[in-house]
Amino acid sequence: MHHDTLTNMNKSYRFLLNRQLIGLIGGLSMVLWLTALPALAQRRRAKAEPDTAIAKPGSGSTTTVRMEEETLFAEGMRFMMTDEPAKAIAQFTKILQKYPNNAAAQYSTANALLKTGKTNEAIPHAAKAYSLDKQNKFYSLLLAELYVKQKRYSEAEELYEGLLKKGTENAEYGVELAAIYLFDEKPDKALETYNKVERELGLNEEIIRQKQRIYLKQNKIDKAIEEAEKLVASEPGDPDYLLEGAELLIANDRTDQAINWIDRALKLNADLPQAHVLLADIYRKKGDMARVSKELNQVLANPNLEAGLKARILSSYVGMTGENATAQQDAFSMAQNLAKTSPNDPKTQIMFADLLMQQGKKLEARDTYAKAARLDGSIYEVWGALLQLDGELNQVDSLLEHSQKALEVFPTQGLFWYSNGSANLFKRKYQEAVDALEESKKLLSATTDTAIKKGIDSQLGDAYNGIGDYAKSDEAYESVIKIDPLNDHVLNNYSYFLSLRKANLPRALQLAQKLVERNPTNATYLDTYAWVLYTAKDYAKAKQYLEKAVADPAGASGTIIEHYGDVLYQLGQPDKAAAQWKLAKTKGGGSPDLDKKIATGKL
Known about the structure:
Helix content: over 70%
Distance between the termini: 89 Å
Largest sheet: none
Shape: elongated
Radius of gyration: 40 Å
Number of strands: 0
Structural class: mainly alpha
Strand content: under 5%
Number of helices: 34
């Protein structure tokens, strides 16, 4: 533990009785820079004060030697101030080679070694400085700090105990001693020391909180509450300490006592949102959801509370409702009202959108997330939820628009590129789809989510086919089949596109056959296999599968029925073929050549 860490509590002192501010020295080396250097120039010392600067040379010394020594020390301190401890050590070492009993040089060497992280090497120098001048408290503090770093707590404790015995002017170091006692698992001695510091310096908030932590760890709840009462007594007009005490009581299942403390706080200030939130939590535990709702409504009605904070409070309440349908409905009504009264607060809209999602109201949730995104476009999760809902609702135009806006803010998010690519693919903007999906694939290359990888490659297969880059299309489809040989989307599209190109028909037949074996009643997949057979000129077998496909007229599309007519024509049944073409016309969705087939009665 670094000495600066131990003194943090000292730096934050706020004495509650006498308002005394304790100014501690933050860095030990700075003290030396501020005190030793002037001493080098002036050599003035009170008789009772030990010499902590350059030790006086022997009787044979000269003014030149003294100046050289002081110059070396000054150079070393200059290097310390410019954060070059290694160079400083070199200067101090030159002094110690001639004058090993120079306490200031020993101390400065230890301090420089500490800055370079060489604790083991620093300790002998710090111990030497301390042995030469035990009255210099900074030597004691540095040595104690080094001991603590090596977890030699007992030796550090002795040094601090010695400092405290020298007088009340060192009382502030009791806080550091107490911290070391805690590291050394001596909580009772830590408490004793904290109490001594309080007697010397007055009530201190940080000390009280540390004592509370110790008491709570010892399960001495009453003692911890007594410390809370001290804080309340120090500021009788401040409700904050009462609410902190109430939280302590709630955490230790003393809710009735906590209510009393909260009531005391509300008498001081009736406009305390935190008080009502705490009461809501208490009544939730008691199962009184009506009272919970009442307390929260008081919070939400507070005109001085910003909407975002209200939203966070209400979100917490939502988590409290559990399976209580009445409470859930209350929470929803409160959120709905808050969203209406705070239409320009994004946090409020997000919270309400979340609740709409929980209730399965996807369209309303999507619109509310969209509103939140317009208010604050910097929230990744909002865009993610918005794009997901656009997809689930088949709102392709919205998906395209929202993904483009999301990418303006988050251009390196692969999932957003994926959404954009999907939307462009659906809109038959094949090149834009390829660009977006390839970017998505690049950004998500490290993902372990195989579902996403398969989704990207399967859509790349579709998109590359759309721009006529069949080699890349086939490559993308094959990469999916390699890890998921039963992927229906790829089996269907890949085999169908191969048949349209009259390319690699054996592979197309293999894929399509596997597809219908898995989906023997799916009209679309039956049609795909039949069309591959048709392309391979196996008309009789194609007819068998198309008959299965059109067996359910409601499920047969115009394309499927047209294909059935084509097969019948190839089998020498032109009249039946014409009837199917006319039926396909009424269904809609046929090929551009359908009208010509009907008019001529021929393919």
